User: Fold this.
Amino acid sequence: MVLETGLRALLVVSIVSAAAPFVCALLARFRVPQVVVLIVGGVLIGPEVFGFAEPQAVELVANVGLGFLFLLAGYELELDHFRERSGRLAMTGWLISAVISIAVTGLLAATGFVHAFVPVALALTTTALGTLLPILRDNDMLGGPLSRFIMPAGAVGEFFPIVGIAIFLGTRGRLYGLASLVVMCVLALGLSWLPRLARVERFETISHQGEHATSQTTLRLTVMLLLGLLVLASDVGLDVVLGAFLAGVVLRRWAPGDVDALEHKLDAVGYGFFIPVFFVSSGMSLDLGSIADAPARLVVFFLLLLVVRGIPSLFLYRHDLVARERAQMMLLTATSLPLLVALAAVGLDTGHMLPENAASLVGAGVLSVMVFPGLAVALNRPSAASPPDGAPLDRS
Assistant:
């Protein structure tokens, strides 16, 4: 009976997933991202509206989809950016957002608006790079000058809050969380160097011969790496998205064979099935009742995402991007969702976060995905060439 329920729920979710591109085509003039359609579809089929499916029935597949989302985000990240001006600006921008977030959350806590200081403060500094990737890809925004700045900014907006979760919100204490984080990073670094230190000729031969055959060796090895790091992160008390993100970062160096072909396969598996399930499930899990009881809280958190995480970009990149591109940076960096779900869950588990705040925080994340990227895409029109990374704008 449980299996049948799960299959029926997956069927309903797959219908929403398959229909999303056609809905977007019908709404082409409004430039609605597919992610928005998937989330709205999840709300409609979820228990809060028509009740066609329960999010618990697709939870495992949705979690794998979340893993693929962060895997591909890490896979797209160029570590060389962090040796350049774009990487330094990304870290500076996050630190500025963190300071503003601490001040704002402290004020909200003093007024009794929030009880869970740390989860809310971290939530306001997040950026959903994994969520933004399909939107940026679909609108050809990964090849322009903006991408050199949004990729590191998005990576920092995902990785630093994960570090904060590990250290400040771990169930086994801060020292254990910090030690676990170091172990995960060392393990990821070791995996990235393993092929260079010990190249087993027979292993490489089998991998090359089977990567495009029915054995699909490189794809299977990648999935094994992803699931292995997800399980390890979960076992040591870290958020599972850390394992997925690190898996993506090391994958280009770790994976044998045709890396470009592997990227297309990962896109097919991730965006073709697992990732849409995560977005639909996010819509299904939205607590509309709690949001309706306190709608002002959702509006406050939604605006704070823009003020705390987005507004600093307008000033930080003034020497590197034109006004239109800075506005896009503001909107894109303020987009958040997956980590808000995790932080809301942590706040509820500890009993420190009010249920209405948890629902409003997730709702604000969903709303940010529905509004901010669409506005950024609408601003994506041809303009004068921006300067190379690290060079100041010529405003003469």
